[in-house]
Each structure stands twice: as C-alpha cells, then as structure tokens.
Amino acid sequence: MRRRAELGDDLREIAWHGEVDVVLSLHGRAATALVLYYTAVGLWGLFLGARNSGPTPGFRGAVAIAVIASVVQGALGFLVFVFMHPPPELLHILYGFALALAMPFAASLVRDRAPRGQSVALGLAALFTAGLAIRGIITA
C-alpha cells in the first residue's frame, strides 16, 4: 500500500515539473516574440518620424502592448526563478528589469518634444529595448 502512495507522489512531482517546464518554454518563446515586436514598433516609430508625423494612437497602443508584454514576460521569469532555478548569469535578471522599464522611461522623457521627435525617440527606444531582449536571451 505504501508503494502506491509513493508512486502517486512521484507522478504528482513529474506533473509539477511539467507545468514549470511549460512556463519556462513560454518565457523563452515570449522573449523571441518581444524581440520581433519591439523591432516592428521601433521601425514603425522611425517610419512615422521620416514622414514628419507624431505618434499615432495606434503607435502609442503598440508601445503600451509592448510594455504590458514585457511585464508579463517578467512575471513568467519570476515563476521560473522561484519554482525551478535562477538563470546561470544573474545579469539576465538585470536585462529583464531594464526591458520592462526602458519604454515607460523613454515615454516620460519624450513627452515635451515635438511630435516628430517623439516618434523618432520612441522608435529608437523600442529598437534599444529589442536589443535588451536579445541580450537577455543570450544570458539565459
């Protein structure tokens, strides 16, 4: 009878690790998606600036979606950190915080600029943030 209980505990342990592996996989895939998304947003911002246009509502919405996705990415990373293991390089965590804070910081800095300058600055900030995401992937 005791053997069956141990087997049940082992199966629950395997299922738990499977769920954590899913979170780890989501964390990795979301990182790749963030690189691509921030790159697209950055190019969009530069395109708006080249057309001498300020940030459109759609562009601002894209920036907001990117920031929310970065925070979700950080939450997934926190779950992996707590329930599995820390990353091999703790610099990975620093890149995660920088990723989540870069765009809100950039948006607060460009608020008083000319509309064209806002588009260009936010576009460059998004490309910089894509670079932070790449560095985070490299240090994982």
Descriptive overview:
This protein is mainly α and 140 residues long. The protein has one domain (2-138): Four Helix Bundle (Hemerythrin (Met), subunit A) (Up-down Bundle). The protein is 85% helix and 0% strand. It contains four helices and no strands. The protein has helices at 2-50, 57-83, 91-109, 115-138. The chain is elongated and about 50 Å long. The model has no long low-confidence stretch (mean pLDDT 89).
Question: What is this structure, in a nutshell?
Answer:
This protein is mainly alpha-helical and about 140 residues long. The protein has a single domain (about 1-140), classed as Four Helix Bundle (Hemerythrin (Met), subunit A) (Up-down Bundle), CATH 1.20.120. Helix content is about 85%, strand content about 0%.
Descriptive labels:
single chain, 140 residues, mainly alpha, 4 helices, 0% strand, elongated
Topology summary:
Layout (H helix, E strand, L loop, with lengths): L1 H49 L6 H27 L7 H19 L5 H24 L2
Helix pairs in contact: 1-2, 1-4, 2-3, 3-4
Give the integer mean of the pLDDT values. Answer: 89
Helical content band: over 70%
**Element pattern in H and E:** HHHH
- CATH architectural arrangement: Up-down Bundle
Instruction: Name the beta content range.
Output: under 5%
Structural class: mainly alpha
Largest sheet: none
- Gap between N and C termini, in Å? 43 Å
List the domain count as a whole number.
1
Number of strands: 0
Number of helices, counting only DSSP H or I runs of 4 residues or more:
4
Rg of Cα set: 20 Å
CATH fold descriptor = Four Helix Bundle (Hemerythrin (Met), subunit A)
Q: Globular, elongated, flat, extended or rod-shaped: what is the shape?
A: elongated
CATH class: Mainly Alpha
Identify low-pLDDT runs.
none
